[in-house]
């Protein structure tokens, strides 16, 4: 069958094509599924944009290869005496890409710009009450309460040059029509923009006057978005691009099978989980139980957890690439509760027993809502889970849809059980607690993604204490308690951490970071 | 038997053209398989409990590592390919045929009236046709999908997806019927039997549907077969663009979309078997369509 | 010199080989015009096609010889045959509208033909073409040659077709119904041209036609064919004047004479006689019972019909096309009024105005004393829609081919509410069929199973089933063969006299109108040229136009006709 | 002639208004743009404020009135996603789609017409049956499968042609064209062939049907009777008359080309309007979707007008009035 070997033969043709491409010295051509919408660091708080702009702009602090916080534009920082907040001493002799000097004024201006109503990233500065310039290279951030994690939470807060922004009337992120900062950049980072054709091609070239010494040998970085996964892979295998993030899970074996290419597999910090409608008093989609919501009974929720066999999902759907998850953050993230690191085992009999105990011996039907274009194999996972639930009597009526309609439906409580993936923005356990476990409280901007409105007084009480606790041991004890409560009450069913799969040519060394950010400055093309 | 065969010419022509026979055999076999899928297929792919994940990604029986229980292998969910295809073809045919009927009723009705009344009414119908042609099929599908989601209550939405898709496809096909019906009606309007009916004072509706319609069925029938093929293809394209049917009640188009993800990962059969099946179905329908056009086109004889 | 010896042509079909023509013999000397006459289906066109080698698929020459001069046409290779076509043998088709390529100028089509058979340069070919056009009577040919076919009138276009046929001065020209689509005046000019070419250029003409008048006027010798066989051949005067084969005699009797009125056509013996048979008179009784006492005449005065011409520019509204201009006409009750005129004279528009298909711009119409409203304002249930019925020209399009004869005939019965019971309706329809001379069993068949003549009988039956008082016949027989035409005309005469119908008989054929009509009106370009009793009009025409029409109609010389 | 054009223009304005109204009135059901525009941590209050600023809470009629009046003044609004003026976004993308569509159409004509003529003149030939079958198979495989197949065969296996994107373009006064460089053509071939396959089958079958019809006409038989060489008869006479009806149908099919270009562009990552439209659907970028539709309607109407004018130009019966 000619069509069959289409997929598996070795690529003499492709290898040959690489040289034919006439790659100039150390150009890196890479692709991803989505194009960063804008070049304005404060306009949009989304991973693709922040990841790309981290190559151009820099924050006071930055994350190292192992996700730890290290000095960047701030050389050091200490808590303020006498009031809550932090003092940052800035690095001297740093210049922006247009040559102007970097001073505290620029940091203050960037703070005012980033916390303005027009900026989508203003939620990072919720705890900040005041910012004071002490001298040309020191600046204080005053917070409304002790905030040990504040430096970590502003790793993506990028600094603009005040005169450049005001000079090109881009003092605020574009409210409606684009302004100068949407298409042009002036950061302190390792690279600057050499060409921008939105949605088609974006070119980065090294910034000569960068304060840090360059580990990379890239002379030109060309980024092109490729929406269709199969086309992207073809582009890599045909040698037209050097690196692509991500590639479909099922094609890993293929790429590894071809010499000249390799695959980088890691764990993304995103945990995939099922959530319940804790606050719903009836099931919306059930055909047999319409007067009460069985999922309000923790035993039913535990039964659902026991019905899922993560190992077989791993083997068949993810080809052994995922890690089972016991809580809402993966292992290794600060605040991970080692004490509660085991998850409910796959035990269909125990699940049926629990259901019977809860009064549903032959189970019931309910509506399971999932996305079909947001997480890796999201639709396939939901179908697999639905068939596992059905095995124990929980008849799931599956409805999948594009993510553009998904969040509004969840906000209108249009589900019985729903699929959710969560990646902690601050890479700390406090983040999911603040957004997913704390009961919904709009003014305080808490629990905004807790769609089922799970609420536990003790958890609500512990959150502010965790946020202000300086002593790490005490903080971890409180976090362990929260994780224990939510596990015991099965607030969510954490399933697994999503695999992070990049593919590149052999002659490209690069570092894969857990937050799926691609740093051009760690790349060497040999 | 011989003279009956001879006397009724289309049948005689059919018996003597091998292509039409082969096409008819394939089409009937597929339609038979689709209609009787529940009894033929081993597994009901729509019932989630009837298959398990562990049988996922099994190759066809002539490949190594295959499970004889699944002759043509299984897809990523462990569904038997043959059953999925039969059920998928059934859904595709249901959508295709119902979309076609709606398009035919709407198109022929408007086309006949436009041809009969002519003048301003004809111009209005043709402009509506222009608007419909200017809206790409994907957008029609998207908009109807959006309306259904906005208007209908949440619980009903899932099983109304098929109706939404059918309506969307029908809306993008009715223009062909309208244009052909209109052109044929203009020809018939010159004929004296129509003038006689008008002179008698018969109601326009009766003239259109009792007198004119039987005489313009020939060309419409040909469009019917050609558009059935494009309706099925359109359903496949829409599901590729993410607007088609949900993955748990696959049509042929959805199966192909799922198959696309495994194109390079070695599981070639998930894509190519449904695609070859679709090609066989569409080609045979088209060949029958061509045959019908030659038979019903008086001038060709 | 063309010689054909027992030529046979066969058409394979699923019923085995059908013999179209067999043992046909014929000789045509240079300069001779040899008429080939016969009714439709006689195979005359097949002979012409066989000679020039253009038999329509899948026909083939099964036997016999065709020699032109010394060359045996059947022995030629396809390429050689193609070279001869246009060079030594040419052909003229019936309809000038479709014989010329609409997208090419006359010059291109002439030049390409000339250059196909001679090595003339382009300019030489053009000058030759211009001379040719002048020779066949096209004025200022030099400028007209650059025009497109649609810019010529029917007659002009046929002249161009003839020029194309003779531009390579062929030995033989096969003219297949060359003048059938033309008006009388233009027909005679084209026939005269053919005679002149035969004489001056010594071209042998095979003139294929069904019109015996044309044969009489032009042909030197004639061959009569029927059902693929030659009945008789010889000098025209001898064959037409004193035919010795009964079929030829029957054919001659069926031709309506122009110069004398005969009360009924002598119809060949096998034609069915109208009105006999038991069920026939059931229909007759039903019609008579429905007949109200008085007969209805029709009066039109100052009737004008105008059609808006298509707008070509925003500012000037173009002058409307005047189809009927101030027409006043009266059809006396119980009589037949003939209406004669050439194509484009407005005959059909008049019929459509009366029946309401077209709304006049001014003038009034009365039917038997009551006012007849215009089409627009005439309600669907207005009594005139039942009282006035019409028989159309083309039998193939006046009956709905998807309905059975029963459906067609029963429609007026239930529509006008005459008979509510279905079985009764069916019995009456079958009876009417017999009244018009057809077998009652035909009721369950479809129109395509009948000949042209039979279909026209069904159309008449349908008209009668509406119990009309006024019948309009728009060219009822011009699409039929002469023999069939005679039967239908006899039928119409009998029905008119039996049921006291007032009839408006429209035709372009003056001889037919003379045999049918009590009074006659001559129409030209929408205006009445002359109206009066038929005999006065034919014997002593007042208007020059009428005289000219009578003179130009090809007709058999009086001397040839058998006595009585 | 002038009157004819004016009448068509008035009608086309109505078509475009109808398309705009239809599209705009239904966008409200296509999803919530705000949830796409804001990040994960944006609070509900901020989202409401943004919704207010964008005027999405205004009644539908007001929104539509604003949409049309702005458009008439040439202000096409800005994209919710990239904040770029929609006019620039679409203007940048028009050359890509137009060039792809036109080249696909040309391929379908260059291959379709001769194939149609051949199959018409030799209806029973083996090659004819072969051509008919292969083109039929070609049109039975969904466009995206054909696209991916071509990418893998020519891009990955053989490596002759690029697998995605549109490079080698040359800027000629605001029009970015890929027709003037070898690299430009190399990246254009595969998408154009994918888009062209459907058109090609259509054109071929149309030409075949019309040609067989014309071959039976009287003027062809008269041409045969005049001994006009067969070649001239087939091409000068028959083909010219075949083109008249074929051109109108091809004009109508241009709508199909636009629809299928959406799929082709998404498979080949071809930076045309189709891809932009697809991305704006995923992102519920209403202004871009609205303007795209009106532009497509405009192209469609324009093509119809051109086809009608071509019709008159080719057919002298319409062009030259009687002498």
Biggest sheet overview of chain A: 11 strands, mixed
Q: State the total count of DSSP E strands of chain A.
A: 19
What number is the mean pLDDT of chain B? 81
General form of chain A: globular
Assign an overall shape of chain B. Answer: globular
Please name the CATH topology of the largest domain in chain A: D-Maltodextrin-Binding Protein, domain 2
Discrete helix count of chain B? 13
Instruction: Give the termini distance of chain A in whole angstroms.
Output: 38 Å
Radius of gyration of chain A: 25 Å
CATH C-level class of chain B is: Mainly Alpha
Keywords (chain D): Cell membrane, Membrane, Transmembrane, Transmembrane helix, Transport
Membrane topology (chain D): Multi-pass membrane protein
InterPro entries (chain D): BPD_transp_1_N, MetI-like, MetI-like_sf
Domain ABC transmembrane type-1 (chain D): 94-311
Briefly, what is this?
The complex is a heterotetramer of chains A (about 525), B (about 300), C (about 575) and D (about 325). With about 575 residues, chain C is α/β, with parallel strands linked by helices. In chain C, about 35% of the residues lie in helices and about 25% in strands.
Describe the structure.
The complex is a heterotetramer of chains A (526), B (301), C (564) and D (323). With 526 residues, chain A is α+β, with helices and mostly antiparallel strands. Chain A has 2 domains: 27-260 and 506-525, Periplasmic binding protein-like II (D-Maltodextrin-Binding Protein, domain 2), CATH 3.40.190; 268-499, Roll (Dipeptide-binding Protein, domain 3), CATH 3.10.105. Chain A has 17 helices and 19 strands. Chain A has helices at residues 2-5, 12-20, 47-53, 104-114, 150-153, 162-167, 180-183, 229-237, 252-257, 298-307, 310-317, 348-357, 378-391, 403-411, 430-437, 457-468, 472-488; strands at residues 27-32, 61-63, 69-71, 74-79, 85-90, 128-135, 138-143, 191-197, 201-206, 220-225, 243-245, 261-276, 323-324, 364-371, 394-401, 417-422, 492-505, 508-509, 524-525. In chain A, strands 1, 8, 9, 10, 11, 12, 13, 14, 15, 16 and 17 form an 11-stranded mixed sheet that branches. Chain A has a 4-stranded antiparallel sheet with strand order 4-5-7-6, with helices on one face. Chain A has a two-stranded antiparallel ribbon with strand order 2-3. Residues 1-23 of chain A have low confidence and may be disordered. Chain B is mostly helical. Chain B has a single domain, classed as MetI-like (MetI-like fold, Orthogonal Bundle). The two termini of chain B are 23 Å apart. The model of chain B has no long low-confidence stretch (mean pLDDT 81). Chain C has 3 domains: 1-60 and 175-253, Rossmann fold, CATH 3.40.50; 89-169, no CATH class; 280-310 and 330-554, 3-Layer(aba) Sandwich (Rossmann fold). In chain C, 37% of the residues lie in helices and 23% in strands. Chain C has 21 helices and 20 strands. Chain C is globular, with a radius of gyration of 26 Å. With 323 residues, chain D is an all-alpha fold. Chain D has 2 domains: 34-75, no CATH class; 89-318, Orthogonal Bundle (MetI-like fold). Chain D is 76% helix and 2% strand. Chain D has a two-stranded antiparallel sheet with strand order 1-2. In chain D, a hairpin with a 2-residue loop joins β1 (170-172) and β2. In chain D, α5 runs antiparallel to α6, α5 (86-121) runs antiparallel to α10 (230-268) and α10 (230-268) runs parallel beside α11. Chains A and D meet through α2, α8 and α14 of A and α2, α3, α7, α10 and α11 of D.
């Amino acid at each position: 069958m000619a069509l069959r070997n289409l997929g598996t033969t070795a690529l003499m043709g492709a290898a040959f094509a690489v040289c034919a491409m006439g790659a100039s010295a150390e150009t890196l051509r890479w692709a991803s599924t989505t194009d960063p919408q804008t070049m304005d660091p404060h306009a949009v708080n989304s991973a693709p944009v922040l990841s790309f702009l981290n190559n151009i702009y820099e924050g006071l602090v930055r994350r190292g290869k192992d996700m730890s916080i290290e000095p960047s534009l701030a050389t050091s920082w200490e808590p303020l005496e006498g009031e809550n907040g932090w003092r940052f001493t800035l690095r001297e002799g740093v210049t922006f890409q247009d040559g102007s000097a970097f001073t505290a004024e620029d940091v203050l201006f960037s703070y005012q710009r980033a916390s303005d109503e027009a900026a989508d990233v203003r939620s990072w500065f919720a705890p900040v009450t005041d910012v004071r310039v002490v001298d040309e290279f020191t600046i204080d951030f005053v917070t409304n309460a002790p905030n040990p994690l504040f430096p970590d939470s502003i790793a993506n807060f990028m600094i603009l040059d005040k005169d450049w922004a005001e000079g090109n009337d881009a003092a605020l992120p574009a409210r409606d029509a684009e302004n100068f900062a949407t298409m042009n950049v002036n950061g302190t980072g390792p690279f600057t923009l050499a060409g921008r054709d939105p949605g088609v091609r974006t070119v980065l070239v090294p910034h000569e006057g960068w304060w840090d010494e360059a580990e990379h040998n890239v002379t030109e970085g060309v980024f092109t978005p490729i929406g269709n996964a199969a086309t992207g892979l073809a582009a890599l295998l045909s040698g037209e691009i050097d690196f692509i993030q991500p590639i479909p899970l099922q094609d890993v074996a293929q790429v590894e099978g071809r010499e000249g290419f390799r695959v980088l597999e890691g764990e993304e910090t995103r945990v995939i989980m099922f959530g319940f409608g804790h606050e719903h008093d009836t099931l919306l989609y059930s055909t047999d139980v319409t007067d009460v919501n069985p999922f309000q009974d923790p035993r039913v929720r535990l039964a659902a957890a026991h019905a899922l066999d993560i190992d077989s999902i791993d083997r068949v759907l993810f080809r052994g690439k995922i890690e089972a998850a016991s809580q809402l953050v993966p292992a290794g993230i600060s605040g991970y509760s080692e004490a509660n690191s085991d998850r409910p085992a796959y035990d269909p009999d125990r699940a049926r027993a629990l259901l019977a105990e809860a009064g549903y011996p032959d189970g019931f039907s309910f509506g399971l809502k999932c996305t079909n274009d947001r997480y890796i194999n999201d639709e396939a996972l939901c179908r697999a889970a639905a068939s596992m639930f059905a095995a124990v009597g929980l008849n799931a009526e599956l409805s999948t849809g594009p993510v553009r309609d998904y969040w509004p439906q969840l906000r209108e409580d249009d589900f019985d059980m729903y699929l959710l993936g969560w990646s902690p923005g601050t890479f700390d356990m406090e983040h999911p607690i603040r957004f997913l476990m704390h009961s919904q409280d709009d003014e305080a901007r808490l629990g905004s993604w807790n769609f089922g409105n799970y609420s536990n007084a003790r958890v609500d009480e512990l959150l502010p204490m965790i946020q202000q606790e300086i002593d790490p041991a005490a903080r971890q004890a409180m976090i362990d308690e929260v994780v224990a409560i939510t596990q015991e009450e099965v607030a969510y069913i954490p399933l697994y951490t999503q695999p992070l799969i990049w593919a590149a040519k052999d002659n490209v060394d690069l570092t894969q970071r857990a937050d799926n950010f691609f740093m051009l400055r760690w790349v060497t093309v040999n | 038997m011989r003279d009956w065969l001879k006397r009724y010419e289309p049948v005689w022509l059919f018996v003597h053209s091998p292509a039409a026979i082969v096409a008819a055999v394939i089409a009937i076999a597929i339609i038979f398989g689709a209609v009787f899928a529940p009894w033929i297929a081993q597994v009901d792919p729509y019932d989630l409990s009837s298959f398990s994940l562990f049988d996922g990604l099994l190759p066809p029986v002539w490949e190594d590592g295959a499970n004889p229980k699944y002759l043509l292998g299984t897809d990523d969910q462990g569904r038997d390919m043959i059953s999925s295809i039969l059920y998928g073809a059934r859904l595709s045919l249901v959508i295709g045929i119902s979309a076609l009927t709606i398009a035919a009723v709407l198109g022929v009705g408007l086309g006949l009236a436009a041809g009969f009344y002519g003048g301003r009414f004809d111009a209005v119908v043709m402009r509506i046709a222009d608007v419909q042609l200017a809206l790409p099929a994907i957008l029609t599908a998207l908009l109807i999908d959006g309306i259904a989601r906005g208007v209908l209550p949440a619980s009903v939405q899932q099983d109304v997806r098929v109706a939404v898709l059918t309506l969307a496809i029908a809306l993008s096909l009715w223009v062909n019927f309208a244009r052909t019906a209109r052109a044929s009606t203009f020809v018939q309007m010159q004929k004296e039997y129509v003038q006689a009916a008008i002179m008698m004072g018969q109601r326009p509706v009766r003239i259109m549907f009792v007198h004119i319609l039987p005489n313009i069925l020939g060309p419409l029938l040909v469009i019917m077969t050609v558009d059935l093929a494009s309706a099925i293809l359109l359903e496949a394209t829409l599901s590729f663009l993410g607007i088609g049917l949900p993955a748990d009640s696959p049509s042929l188009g959805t199966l192909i979309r799922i198959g696309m993800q495994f194109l390079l990962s070695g599981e070639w059969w998930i894509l190519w078997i449904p695609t070859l099946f679709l090609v066989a179905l569409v080609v045979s329908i088209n060949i029958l369509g061509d045959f019908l056009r030659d038979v019903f086109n008086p001038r060709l004889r | 010199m063309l010689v054909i010896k027992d030529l046979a042509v066969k058409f394979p079909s699923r019923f085995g080989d059908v013999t179209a023509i067999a043992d046909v013999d014929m000789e045509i000397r240079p300069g001779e015009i040899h008429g080939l006459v016969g009714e439709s289906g006689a195979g005359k066109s097949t002979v012409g096609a066989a000679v020039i080698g253009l038999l329509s698929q899948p026909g083939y020459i099964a036997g016999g010889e065709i020699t032109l001069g010394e060359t045996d046409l059947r022995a030629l290779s396809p390429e050689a045959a193609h070279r001869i076509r246009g060079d030594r043998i040419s052909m003229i088709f019936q309809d000038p509208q479709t014989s010329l390529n609409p997208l090419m100028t006359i010059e291109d089509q002439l030049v390409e033909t000339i250059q196909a058979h001679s090595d003339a340069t382009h300019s030489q070919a053009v000058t030759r073409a211009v001379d040719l056009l002048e020779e066949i009577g096209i004025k200022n040919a030099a400028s007209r040659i650059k025009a497109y076919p649609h810019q010529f009138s029917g007659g002009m276009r046929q002249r161009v077709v003839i020029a194309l046929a003779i531009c390579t001065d062929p030995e033989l020209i096969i003219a297949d119904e060359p003048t059938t689509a033309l008006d009388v005046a233009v027909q005679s000019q084209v026939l005269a041209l053919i005679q002149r070419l035969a004489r001056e250029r010594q071209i042998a003409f095979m003139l294929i036609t069904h019109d015996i008048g044309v044969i009489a006027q032009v042909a030197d010798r004639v061959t009569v064919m029927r059902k693929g066989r030659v009945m008789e051949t010889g000098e025209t005067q001898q064959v037409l004047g004193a035919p010795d084969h009964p079929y030829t005699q029957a054919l001659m009797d069926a031709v309506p004479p122009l110069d004398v009125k005969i009360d009924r056509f002598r119809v060949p013996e096998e034609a069915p006689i109208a009105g006999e048979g038991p069920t026939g008179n059931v229909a007759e009784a039903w019609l008579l019972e429905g007949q109200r006492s008085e007969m209805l005449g029709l009066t039109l005065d100052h009737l004008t019909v105008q059609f808006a011409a298509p707008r070509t520019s925003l500012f000037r509204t173009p002058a409307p096309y005047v189809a009927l201009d101030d027409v006043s006409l009266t059809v006396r009750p119980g009589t037949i009024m003939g209406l004669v005129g050439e194509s484009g004279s407005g005959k059909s528009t008049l019929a459509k105005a009366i029946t309401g298909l077209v709304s006049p711009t001014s003038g009034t119409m009365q039917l038997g004393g009551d006012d007849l409203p215009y089409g627009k304002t005439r309600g669907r249930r207005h009594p005139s829609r039942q009282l006035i019925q019409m028989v159309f020209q083309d039998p193939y399009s006046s009956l709905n081919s998807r309905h059975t004869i029963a459906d067609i005939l029963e429609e007026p019965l239930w529509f006008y509410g005459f008979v509510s019971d279905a079985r009764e309706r069916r019995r009456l329809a079958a009876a009417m069929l017999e009244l018009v001379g057809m077998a009652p069993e035909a009721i369950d068949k479809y129109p395509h199973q009948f000949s042209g003549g039979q279909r026209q009988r069904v159309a008449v039956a349908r008209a009668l089933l509406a119990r009309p008082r006024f019948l309009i016949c728009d060219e009822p027989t011009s699409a039929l063969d002469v023999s069939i035409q005679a039967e239908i005309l006899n039928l119409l005469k009998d029905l008119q006299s039996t049921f006291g119908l007032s009839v408006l008989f429209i035709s372009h054929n003056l001889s037919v109108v003379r045999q049918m009509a009590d009074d006659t009106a001559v129409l030209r370009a929408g205006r009445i040229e002359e109206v009066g009793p038929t005999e006065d009009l034919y014997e002593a025409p007042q208007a020059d136009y009428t005289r000219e029409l009578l003179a130009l109609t090809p007709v058999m010389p009086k001397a040839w006709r058998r006595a009585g | 002639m002038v009157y004819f054009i004016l009448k068509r223009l008035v009608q086309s304005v109505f078509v475009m208004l109808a398309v705009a109204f239809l599209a705009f009135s239904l966008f409200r059901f296509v999803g919530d743009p705000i949830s796409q525009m804001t990040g994960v941590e944006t609070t509900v209050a901020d989202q409401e404020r943004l919704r207010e600023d964008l005027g999405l809470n205004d009644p539908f009629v007001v929104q539509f009135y604003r949409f049309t009046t702005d458009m008439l003044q040439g202000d096409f609004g800005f994209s919710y996603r990239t904040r770029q003026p929609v006019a620039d976004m679409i203007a940048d993308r028009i050359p890509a789609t137009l060039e792809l569509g036109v080249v696909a159409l040309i391929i379908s004509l260059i291959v379709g017409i001769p194939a149609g003529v051949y199959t018409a003149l030799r209806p029973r030939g083996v090659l004819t049956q072969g051509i008919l079958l292969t083109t039929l198979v070609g049109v039975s495989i969904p466009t995206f499968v054909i696209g991916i197949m071509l990418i893998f065969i020519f891009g990955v296996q053989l490596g002759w042609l690029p697998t995605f994107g549109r490079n080698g373009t040359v800027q000629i006064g605001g029009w970015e064209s890929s027709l003037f460089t070898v690299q430009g053509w190399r990246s254009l071939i595969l998408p154009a062939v994918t888009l062209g396959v459907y058109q090609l089958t259509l054109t071929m079958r149309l030409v075949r049907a019309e040609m067989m019809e014309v071959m039976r006409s009287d003027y062809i038989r008269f041409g045969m009777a005049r001994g006009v060489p067969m070649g001239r008869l087939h091409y000068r006479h028959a083909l010219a008359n075949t083109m008249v009806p074929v051109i109108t149908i091809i004009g109508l099919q241009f709508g199909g080309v636009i629809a299928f270009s959406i799929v082709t562009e998404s498979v080949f990552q071809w930076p045309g309007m189709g891809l932009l439209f697809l991305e704006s659907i995923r992102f519920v970028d209403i202004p871009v979707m609205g303007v795209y539709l009106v532009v497509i309607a405009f192209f469609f109407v324009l093509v119809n007008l051109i086809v009608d004018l071509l019709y008159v130009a080719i057919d002298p019966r319409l062009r030259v009035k009687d002498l």
